[in-house]
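Query form — protein Putative OPT family oligopeptide transporter

QUESTION: What is the three-dimensional structure of this chain?
INPUT:
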Amino acid sequence: MSHGPSEDTIASNDSRTANEQTARDGPSPTVPAGKSVTELTIKAVLIGLALNVVLLTANMYLGMRSGMTISASIPAAVISMGVFYALRNAGIGGTILENNIVQTMTSAGEALAAGVIFTIAGVTFLDQPIDIAGTAAVAVLGGLLGILFMIPMRRYLIVDKHEELPYPEGTACADVLEAGSQGEGGVKLISLGFFVSFVYMWLASGMAAFKTTIQTAFSAGQTRGFAIGGDFTPALIGVGYIIGPKIAGYVFGGGLIAWMMLIPLLITGGFVPEAAADATLMTQANAVWDEYIRYVGAGAMIVGGFYAILSMSGTIRDALATAMADLRGSATTATEQQRRTQRDLPMKLVVIGAAVIALALVAIPQVQVGLLGGVIAVVAAFLFVAVSAYLVGVVGSSSNPVSGMAVATILIAALALKSTGVTDPVVVLVTASVVAIAAAVAGDTSQDLKTGYLLGATPRNQQIAQMIGIAISALFAGWVLSFFHQAYGIGSETIPAPQAGMMALISEGVLTGTAQWGMILIGAVFAIVLILMDVPVLPFAVGIYLPITLATPIFLGGLLRAGIDWYVARNDDEDGTVEEHTTYRGRIIAAGLITGEAIMGIVIGALYILEIGAASGAPFPLGFGAETQTILGVVALVALVGIFTVGVLRGPQTVDT
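ANSWER: The structure tokens for Putative OPT family oligopeptide transporter are given below.
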């Protein structure tokens, strides 16, 4: 019996060429359209729901800590394969399409987490409590909009644009699931990353054995306030590895512009907030970033979001045309609907569902964005669902610019609602939350539908599974958000929640007239320059907005990916199978690093809430001095990078044919 995907199987799947795909009318799915295979079962739903909650929690922690989330589709596929492998040994079998349902439901939690933490968490910055019931209502309404609006776009984006839009996570998931239904090998890889990260963060955060953060500020000549540093934790390095050196470089580039150019110029020019005027140089740099630079990042994100919509106008028009053809019941559509692999939930459900959700946004007491807010939310959600679904087809879900779309929505909603007399920024945040959640869920849904398309799944079953997963995620989202707020405080050093802080800042600033419009304009002009240079705007904008201590370790992870790829490429064969095999291992171990740190964050938070150990700082500090902690921190970082590299490269570097 096989134990996990074999190397030659992985290589065979990963080396699927474009010529093989275009030689026929679309890809030949693993399960033919005419074959009936067990798919949406109670067993698959229960496993999917359990994993859904775990990855929801992990990604909420990661997003509030780093300002970025990653797609959970690949680790979800690997973990679900491991579960089915264990069930098979116990005499309970499972099909590849059941496995696909599990990963579809699991990744729904990760997607919803992104929308919630980027927007709803912002109420804490406005001195408002986390409303658990209200969070659940907003999350489920936004999530369902994301799924519903993706239905009319599926055939155009997933089927018609199959060659143009690769959907990297969706294709990778299909390759992993095709490699075999036994996931022992993949589970061992993710377990390695999880264990290393879990122990690393327990030593750092639980016992204060070493520091993970190293930073400094300095002057050069007459210019003051240059700042550099990093919070070198496993999760941030794992994020950098997964998104790769190019995107990580864009993020770091934005950080350098903010912390090594803009902040020194402002400090030297005397633009230091009064409260930090007599503080250390590093404190001054942080104060300037908080007071001015975040608005620059917001301006860049706004332009980036609108530019994405403009670039997507053709896609939106084509998707609407496809949807209208479905409603009219054209002959072509009727023929396609007879094929199992092309059956979607009916378009009538999309129309009626969107109308019901719009009414609920106005009527539910915990939401109540008002009629105008409801209209803005639904219309903007449709537009940004199209943007999100297209963009993740090119760059992947981990680079889905949900925050940029939310910023654009906040700006529109705040200006529109202000004209009607609305003065509460929470109303603006809730309106934007619906849009952000819908966009995040649509990106994940499109990746899952791509996986299903390659495997031969029934789209209708996946869409139902997504809805169930979103409903469960929404019920837990408010509770998890409240848990982290009680444990650490949203906006604290541990979970700064940078995106949520920015959303609250812009909402309040527009309504009160205190928004730093000059800084927003600077960011907007900067984004226009990047567009003219054909450089991606949103990764740069995120880098400007993030603290440099988060951008640096992400860049280190990207460099680690580049170094490993370069080393492997020297020994690779002509068809690239060794490099693909190494990439597979690296992504899975990196996912383990992220999951391990997130789970340790939950453990430490529980200790604080239960008042076990010290009330502040590490629960069980070893009492080392600052210098010793710094030295041990460097040693720990080197060890982490070394273990990760060995884990990725170990085993044969050639693939038998």
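ADDITIONAL NOTE: The longest strand covers residues 223-231.
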